[in-house]
Specification:
single chain; ten-stranded mixed sheet
Length: 444
């Protein structure tokens, strides 16, 4: 896809970078109207080496180096390079909302068009990020017995699986992660038809009913039928593969009838969160579809609860859709290690949030171009291929940072990183404990 600009053909990739630049310029120009800075009277009102536009781009295209080296990279080792001190002072004026604004604006210009049967497939999950130690930060501090505790910030994201793009994110302290709240909030503000796919951390009555009220579909893994604390307890379900409807009446009343008919009623304790029962409406009937299938190769089962109809989405399709959820796990890995979110340059909490949004912006920007390259190349290939996402993110980031734009042959550079997709290839998951990594030399 090309466009004629200034007498020459401008590539799709140059258009994407031009759009990004225009949105950053707009954010800087309308910083007061959009409330993107802390002091609406004077922040970024004077000419500086690091004006708001330059500051945003410096943070977006930074990698895992110390601040001074990041600045030298961005300013191409000019003798007029801004100092680390100036960088820290300037970023303190900028709200994380500036990066969130550009993310949303870029998604509007390049919408996620790939759908499945008319639905966007949205995986929802959370990921913890280790940040600098601060025992006074009660939002993020996690005690660790008699040992020194640590601080985590929690990122809840909605990820479009088919378009490989983050479409929404809510950032909270781990103590107040509120994963279920985050999921239905993102479902309520999603513009379009979607199937929200999540793991069992999100399986609550309240979450599912909020999603239904928002007019959206969901597909959530729940604890299996043998779990004593799971949703499926007390339902008369067979110990085999099945595709059945279940219904119950949710209530916070403990009447004799509720106690006598546990198969009809589900009692919710006072500690439960359910927004749809009240004194005027103490009984709330619910009905869902449950699909239970055997995991390939082992004697274990997974149970999925959903509001998708079985006519258009048979049981085998439910299994395939849930397996696609793994895409968000892969995206978190690329966000942290390919886009260098794990190498935070700050300990001030608002600066940390800036970098989270900046890495999401970099990831989305790169994936827009990567997906376009793959789409064009796949038409001429016999087999299905992808690209080395890590290498491609590094290529795009370094080209934009050092060259100020994208060369016409970017697509060839990206497609040199082709990798075959092997859907039937099995490799045991390598799980190891992650320790907190200290990046004091990067802190602002």
């Amino acid at each position: 896809m090309e466009a004629l600009v200034g007498g020459y053909m401008k590539s799709y990739y140059q258009n994407v970078i031009s759009t990004f630049n225009n949105k950053v310029t707009k954010a800087a120009r309308q910083k007061y109207e959009l409330n993107l800075v802390y002091d609406l009277d004077k922040d970024f009102s004077r000419n500086r080496k690091l004006d708001m536009e330059t500051l945003i781009k410096t943070i977006v295209f930074s990698s895992g180096k110390p601040i001074r080296e990041e600045l030298f990279d961005y300013f191409d080792f000019s003798t007029d390079t801004a100092t680390s001190s100036a960088f820290v002072q300037q970023r303190a004026k900028l709200k994380p909302d500036a990066f969130e604004y550009v993310v949303k604006e870029l998604n509007k210009v390049y919408p996620c068009n790939e759908t499945y049967k008319g639905y966007h497939l949205i995986a929802v999950d959370g990921s913890d990020l280790c940040i600098s130690y601060d025992i006074k930060d009660t939002e993020t501090y996690i005690p660790h017995g008699d040992q020194k505790g640590y601080n985590l910030i929690h990122i809840n994201s909605a990820f479009d699986i088919l378009n490989k793009r983050y479409v929404d994110t809510i950032i909270k302290g781990t103590k107040h992660a509120g994963e279920q709240f985050s999921m239905y909030t993102m479902a309520e503000r999603f513009n379009g038809k979607a199937i929200f796919i999540a793991d069992r951390n999100y399986s609550t009555w309240n979450n599912m009913e909020h999603i239904i009220k928002a007019g959206q579909k969901f597909l959530i893994r729940v604890q299996d039928i043998h779990s004593s604390s799971g949703m499926l307890k007390k339902f008369n379900l067979p110990d085999s593969e099945f595709d059945l409807d279940v219904e119950t009446v949710l209530t916070m009343k403990q009447t004799n009838e509720v106690k006598a008919y546990p198969e009809k009623y589900r009692f919710l304790s006072n500690s439960s969160t359910f927004d749809f029962v009240s004194k005027d409406n103490p009984y709330y009937p619910v009905k869902y579809r449950v699909v239970r299938f055997r995991i390939d190769g082992i004697e274990e089962y997974e149970s999925i609860i959903t509001n998708l109809d079985r006519t258009h989405f048979p049981a085998e399709e439910i299994k395939k859709l849930y397996n696609l959820r793994w895409g968000i796990e892969i995206s978190f890995r690329h966000l942290k290690y390919s886009a260098d979110l794990s190498a935070i340059h700050a300990k001030i909490r608002n600066s940390v949030r800036q970098e989270i949004w900046a890495r999401i912006l970099l990831y989305n920007l790169c994936m827009i171009m990567i997906q376009e390259a793959i789409k064009h190349k796949s038409k001429s290939l016999k087999y299905v291929y992808t690209v080395n996402i890590t290498r491609c993110i590094h290529i795009i980031r370094d080209l934009v940072k050092r060259k100020g734009g994208i060369p016409p042959d970017l697509e060839k550079l990206l497609l040199n990183e082709l990798l075959p997709i092997r859907p039937d290839r099995l490799d045991p998951r390598k799980v190891k404990n992650q320790s907190v990594v200290c990046f004091n030399y990067r802190f602002s």
